[in-house]
Amino acid sequence: MKSVLLATFIIAQATSALHVPAADNALTRRAAISGIAGVASTIILPSNLPAIADDEAQDHYKYENRDRNKNKDALIREDYWYFSGRRPPRKLDINALPADDPTWNAWGECTKSEATGNSCVYVSLKQRIPAYGKYFFSIDNGIKEYSQLGKIIRGSNPNWNEAAKLVDPGLDTRMPSPAVDSLLKMALFATQMLTSPNFTGPNRELLVSRYYINECAFALDGLAKSIAERDVATSLALWEYGQDSFNSYLSILNRSISPKVGDNIDLVS
To answer: Which residues face 113 on adjacent strands?
Structure first.
């Protein structure tokens, strides 16, 4: 009975955080998640961004530095940036985080303190294995198609019609492309893989993973426009930004995919 209640809670929590933009009369699902703001505000992630000294650097970081409008148009409004006002690095390297600093203990240490609260975020195999079985194929397929998109854009003579199919948002009666479809699956997968019965609120890993899902969605939305305009430079810049975002998300989730759960999801290449 407990496992059923926990699964119901996890799915309800994930779907309550999803926000589909109101364009094209799409339905919007938003719900405030209680207790998250306090968790996020106690954790500091470095921006990991070098000082912007010239126009080239300014252009390189324009996507991260964009006006997010309080995440009103984000796929998942309640992410790490929304609650902390801080942006994780464009390319997340978890192994570079200072694990001996208690501020970072949610990435593997298990301690309690007034500053960090309960960081025991162990998730059982009984919870992770079904989640992996349910979402792995959709996410892996989306990643593979996004990699294929990069090959098309980098080609000497891009096939724009084929590229457009790979970022199709699926409006009207069309199904979205696997890359676009994978976004909501990534959100649900992260919630089930990272939510522990020891700490049922969204921990930092979950909030940061949502941030990168939002960046993937931003890149795909921009790619749909730049591909329609046959803009190679913008398409390539957006694809690379999406690549960094997908891979940063996977750097978090692949840590939870042990051999008993399954194979790691391949990175975008």
So the answer is: 117
117-118/112-113 β-pairing: antiparallel
Helix (H, G, I), strand (E, B) or coil at 116: coil
Residue 10 — φ and ψ, nearest 5°?
Answer: -60, -45
The rounded distance, in Å, linking the Cα atoms of 195 and 198 is 9
> Can you tell me the distance from the alpha carbon of 92 to that of 75, in angstroms, rounded to the nearest whole number?
20
User: Could you tell me which of 78, 105, 27, 236 has the C-alpha nearest to residue 97?
Assistant: 105
pLDDT tens, N- to C-terminus, the chain (269 residues) = 545 444 554 545 555 555 544 444 333 333 333 344 444 433 344 444 333 344 444 565 689 889 999 999 999 999 999 988 888 889 887 766 655 544 444 444 444 544 444 445 678 899 999 999 999 999 999 999 999 999 999 999 999 999 999 999 998 788 999 999 999 999 999 999 998 887 766 778 899 999 999 999 999 999 999 999 999 999 999 999 999 999 999 999 999 999 999 999 999 99
Q: Report residue 236 as tokens.
A: 């390539």
Q: Do 89 and 61 form a contact (C-beta atoms < 8 A)?
A: no
